[in-house]
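Review this fold:
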Amino acid sequence: MDTAYGILVIILSITLAIFLILAIAVAIQVLKLMSTLKEIARKAEIVVDNAEAVSGAIKKVSGPVSLIHFIKSVMDSAAEHKQKKRGDKSYE
């Protein structure tokens, strides 16, 4: 019986050592993955900040551009009306 307990202790010790080594390896890989994910999150934050800046600039410009587009359409309508009033059909 004494040898059976000795063999059991050796088997359990070897199994525990293998699981401990595997756990350490997995923990190292998880730490590497976490640092990579932190770097990705930092870069994504920079991209979002840049996108916000671009959208703010577009908002500032879109008002004047739409006003210019409106003025151009009014001028085109006035020119078309003037052409029709003269009776000139070349505009159509």
Q: What stands out?
A: The radius of gyration is 38 Å. The helical segments are 2-86. The CA atoms of residues 18 and 63 lie 68 Å apart. The first helix runs from residue 2 to 86.
